[in-house]
From TrEMBL:
Pfam families reported in the protein's UniProt record: Phosphonate-bd
Taxonomic source organism: candidate division KSB3 bacterium
Protein's recorded name: Phosphate ABC transporter substrate-binding protein
SUPFAM superfamilies tied to this protein: Periplasmic binding protein-like II (SSF53850)
Length: 300
């Protein structure tokens, strides 16, 4: 109870400065954005958070909270550029893509339940004779998701920093030049293994946790060729361009203090959120590295 009272006092001191200023949203609502092919699931997971923000931003004209689910990056970027979505959470690579196309800016990390890091594993069939990353030149591999930090950004950077030339192929039967590493997308770790076993590809890249499960179930069948650097499992939160900075600060305070309130566990449970943290210290260093990797891949 005391935590809730203290959090409310802090929040009110910030929000009082906003009274009399231009209303945060002409529509009277704050909109959280997510990307998914399962919109009903995401609505259920994030509506409690939208409701929480709306309740404590009431003094600046917010009456309701809404969750809006886009099918892809392009749609979310368009919604943020037009002001239809105010706050968006996703893996850092997807967040950068949306931000660069809409002008949205990073403000916070959503710390997820479970391990804080994961990395990519390059692997092949043990019988293939492949033993290292260099063996992949002139061969076709499968990555998982084209808009994922762990499934795409980390392995791409690992190859580029090793002096390799990864080239996307539109079809699994496309030729791969001797100085290339051809890649296609599988969109699923099990599909990657299936393509490998049926000799449609010569190697794959999946996250370390997925690889461990598959390797444990099939001992001696797979061989690790290389592993990427660690990447964060946590999500980056970005806000649309043109938001009142004082409102942004109020939202940051609301989010970073959420785990200290009485209602915090209930609000965060459905989205498997542990807490929210400002972008500073170690998280600031992580964001800087992620931006460097993003620019390396985008500008090659």
């Amino acid at each position: 109870m005391l935590h809730k009272i203290l959090a409310t006092v802090v929040l009110m001191s910030i929000l009082i400065t906003l009274v009399g200023s231009e209303a945060y949203s002409e529509s009277g609502k704050i909109v959280l954005g997510k990307i998914s092919d399962k919109p009903t699931k995401k609505l259920k997971e994030y509506q409690p958070l939208a409701d929480y923000l709306a309740e404590y931003l009431n003094d600046v004209g917010i009456e309701t909270g809404e969750v809006k689910v886009a099918p892809d990056i392009e749609t979310m970027a368009r919604w943020m550029a037009s002001g239809e979505v105010d706050l968006f959470f996703d893996n850092p690579y997807s967040a950068f893509l949306v931000g660069d196309r809409s002008g949205a800016q990073p403000i916070i990390f959503r710390i997820k339940e479970g391990p804080s890091e994961k990395h990519g594993v390059f692997f092949a069939l043990a019988e293939s004779g492949l033993t290292s990353l260099a063996d992949l030149e002139g061969r076709l591999i499968a990555l998982e998701e084209p808009e994922s930090a762990s499934d795409y950004l980390l392995p791409m950077v690992h190859m580029l920093e090793a002096g390799m030339n990864p080239v996307k192929k539109s079809d699994i039967n496309d030729p791969v030049a001797a100085d290339e590493v051809g890649y296609v997308f599988s969109y699923d770790s099990d599909k990657t293994v299936q393509l490998l076993v049926t000799k449609k590809i010569e190697a794959g890249v999946i996250t370390d946790d997925d690889f461990q499960k598959i390797s444990d179930a099939n001992p001696g069948v797979l061989v690790v060729l290389a592993e990427t650097e660690e990447g964060t499992r946590n999500q980056l939160g970005i806000v649309r361009a043109g938001m009142d900075p004082s409102v942004v600060e109020a939202m940051i305070t609301l989010l970073t203090g959420l785990d200290k309130t009485a209602e915090g566990p209930m609000v965060m449970e459905s989205s498997e959120t542990l807490r929210f943290e400002e972008i500073s210290g170690d998280l600031g260093t992580i964001l800087t590295r992620l931006r460097t990797m993003y620019e390396l891949v985008q500008n090659r």
